[in-house]
Amino acid sequence: MAQTDEIRHVRLFRNGRNQAIRIPREFELPGEEAILRREGDHLIIEPVASIPLRALLAQWEPIDLDWPEIDNLPADDVDL
């Protein structure tokens, strides 16, 4: 993360109907997405933490349900 003494002057520009900013390489965020939030007059940009599927599933509680039995029905005939 950038420390508070790392400050750069950047330019704002229009990209269609959106206002955009060029982020200098030394402030580059990892990944493809970020979270943008407003705190008063400040805009805060934070990277979205990427969680591998295996780690995400490990966080979930087991599902304790009685699943219904499903009959193995024969496949429908299809004319090709």
Automatic annotation (TrEMBL):
Transmembrane parts of this sequence: none
Keyword Oxidoreductase in annotation: no
Molecular function per GO: DNA binding
The name this protein goes by in its record: SpoVT-AbrB domain-containing protein
Matches recorded under InterPro entries: SpoVT-AbrB_dom, SpoVT-AbrB_sf, VapB_TA_antitoxins
Keywords assigned by UniProt, alphabetized: DNA-binding
Every SpoVT-AbrB domain range: 10-50
Domain of life (superkingdom): Bacteria
Entry similarity comment: Belongs to the VapB family.
PROSITE patterns associated with the record: SPOVT_ABRB (PS51740)
